[in-house]
Amino acid sequence: MKKIEAIVKPHKLEAVKEAVTALGVFGMTVTEVKGYGRQKGHTEQYRGAEILVEFLPKMKIEIVVPDARVPAVTDAIRRAAMTNSIGDGKIFIQNIEGAIRIRTGETGEEAI
């Protein structure tokens, strides 16, 4: 099993959710986060003063899938989240050693 962690722009969350749901992925965890990458934030005007906004709002999406589903799910996320502009985000893939569904006690891929 793998955990796919995607950091995307907030307005792209619904598109990503629809894209992975269309593949049959129904469980995900979403967290509002702030961060920056190569763009190092941006400047805004506030009451006539220029302010540097270093940490930009993003959404972190976490999904656990069987190994065989990783390419399709990551491609769906990438396509749905892409705006072709700086700050589109990143996708990270990590190994998951195990999973247990608390309610039923199911383990492994049956738990996801």
UniProtKB/TrEMBL annotation:
Belongs to the P(II) protein family. GO terms for biological process: regulation of nitrogen utilization. One of its GO terms (cellular component) is cytosol. InterPro entries: N-reg_PII, N-reg_PII-like_a/b, N-reg_PII/ATP_PRibTrfase_C, N-reg_PII_CS. One of its GO terms (molecular function) is enzyme regulator activity. This is Transcriptional regulator. Signal peptide: none annotated. SUPFAM superfamilies: GlnB-like. It comes from the Bacteria. PROSITE patterns: PII_GLNB_CTER (PS00638), PII_GLNB_DOM (PS51343). It holds the Pfam family P-II. Transmembrane segments: none annotated.
